[in-house]
Specification:
4 helices; disordered N terminus; Immunoglobulin-like; single chain; 5-stranded mixed β-sheet; 15 strands; 4-stranded mixed β-sheet
Amino acid sequence: MTARGSSKAAVCFNNSQSRLHSSSILVCCRTFMRWLTLVFFFSTLGCHFSGQAVDWPAVQDSDTDTDTDVEGDDSPASDDDTAASDDDTAASDDTAASDDTAASDDDTAASDDDTAASDDDTGAADDNTEDNTEDDTSEQPENASVVVTSSFPESLVCGEEGTASVELLNDGDTTWSWGSGYKLGTVDDEDPFFAVNRVYLPQGAHVLPGQAWAFEMTLQAPEQEGTYTTDWRMVEEHVQWFGEIAEAEIEVTCPDEDNWEYTDAIADTVLAHATYVRNNYPQFFDLEALDGHTKRSIAYEMMTTVINLLRADGVDASRCIANPGLPQSDPFHWCSDALVVGPPGIGVTLDIYWSWSYPATPQTAMTETDATGVITSDLVALQ
């Protein structure tokens, strides 16, 4: 080969190397652009699914600007869609709340209806209970008593006896009798004036519903001064106490008995009051034409008048008993023309009318000493 040919060949080789180098650079540029395009594509795709904004490189081609504008245009739409979605959600919440409120109101109304029904059922049950109670009560005999009258001494001297009476009405639907255990008893089974604690009906007596019975008892004052309560109530023995209570307060005094004596002054006072009654109460005297029971009944009223006049004048006068075995309601039980003056156990018994029927001359004849009188409920308090 010649030198010219060698030089030409070298130029051709150099040209070939230069073209090869330029071609390699072009290939590399194209490959880089394709890679960049892929990166852009996948980045855009990732942003679309993640909803996050991505900062792109400052250098972008015209296609990228167009996509960016379109994407920018889509953002307000997306915001509008979001707002619409929020409105729909709020509307849905309002609707649900409204539905829940309506349902709650319906449930509340139903609950109120159930409560009203329950109240109605309860009322009906109460009515049935009352009806059953009334029926049960009406089937059982009932004890009941009402105090009609009662009389007790207002005062007694220590150790002195006094009479009391309580009249009770059988206001129930049972019959009182001795055999069925009906009695007048002292409340709480104790009484300062009555140790026995029970007053019995007579055997054979029956007090039907609507009838009344008067119980009589003899009280005895305690040995200490004071004001005491005596109270009484009906009892069906071993079953129940029942009915109203008859009660009274009785004043008990204890005079100095060692210094008491029957003086002429006391005798003069008794004679004066006996004379006053003889002159001013003619209905008590000259009763010979009457039967014995009637005369004794009138004599009882006569002695009540004399004794009350003496007690009002400060004389310790009381009744005497002629026949202790007779009932206290019987006029033959009491002295018809005598009385007791003085404290219990040391008093004296005086006849105050000589032949009280006729001519009934007033006197103060002493017939007994160391006597004890009886204070009945129709005698006034000692002044």
